[in-house]
Amino acid sequence: MSAYAGFQIYSSKVEQGRSYLPAAQEIWKEKIPGSIRQSAAIPTGDFLGTIYIPAISKTVNIFQGTNAKELSRGAGHYLGSVLPGVKDNSVIAGHRDTVFSSLGKVKLGAKIVITTEDGVFTYRVNRIRIVDASDRTVIVPTELATLTLSTCYPFNFIGAAPKRYIVVAKISKSKPSSITSI
Predict the structure, then answer these.
(1) Could you tell me the end-to-end alpha-carbon distance of the chain, in angstroms, rounded to an integer?
(2) The model's pTM
(3) CA pair distance 121, 85, nearest whole angstrom
(4) Which residues are catalytic?
(5) How far apart are alpha carbons 65 and 91 in whole angstroms?
(6) Strand (E) or helix (H) holding 8
(7) What pLDDT digit, counting tens, does each position of 56-80 carry?
(8) How far is CA 167 from CA 65, 80, 129, 151, in A?
(9) Looking at 37-132, which runs of residues are DSSP E strands?
């Protein structure tokens, strides 16, 4: 029994060491025109802003990248996606046992506020789903400014979780910063 528990803990640590959202760069490059603002110029590990979810009274820092280092500091912005507030899909991931531990309490219609140097962007949750860990439909481009939050699922699973809990929100309000260079 102890050996099994030890293996599960080891598996969990191995999972945390991998990139959270495997690269789908080629798909993304084909779909996104080069003229819109992308996050590629922002170095991995840089602070991007905060995400505030009023329904669960949670504020989390967002960092560029979804590797173990970034996710140990807060939520991670998927390198292949656009920045929050930009027309397309901005994907943010976080660990189920830390920053997104209460994400399962967020309901349809809930507000999510992202604050960056580019402005304050308010989203409304319009879809919640559970997908296989290998499902890449969560990181595909979208027609509208969309925010996709991703964490491992089930929340109380020990070891490498087989699923992902996905919260999708559409932008409902945008207040760009006066220093925005878009």
Answers:
(1) 56
(2) 0.79
(3) 6
(4) 95, 152
(5) 10
(6) helix 2-17
(7) 999 999 999 999 999 999 999 999 8
(8) 19, 18, 7, 9
(9) 47-53, 58-64, 75-77, 89-93, 111-116, 119-132
Contacts of 93 (CB under 8 A, 6+ apart): 20, 21, 66, 71, 75, 76, 78, 149, 150, 151
CB 146 within 8 A of CB 97: no
Compute the Cα dihedral for 113, 75, 25, 38 and give only its sign.
positive
Round to whole Å and give the CA distance between 150 and 164. 6
Q: Does the N-terminal peptide bond of residue 154 adopt cis geometry, omega within 30 degrees of 0? A: yes
Selected residue with higher pLDDT from 62 and 173: 62
State the CB neighbour count (10 A cutoff) for residue 143.
8
Question: Residues near 16 by Cβ (< 8 Å), separated by ≥ 6?
Answer: 68, 71, 72, 95
Structure letter (DSSP) for residue 95: -
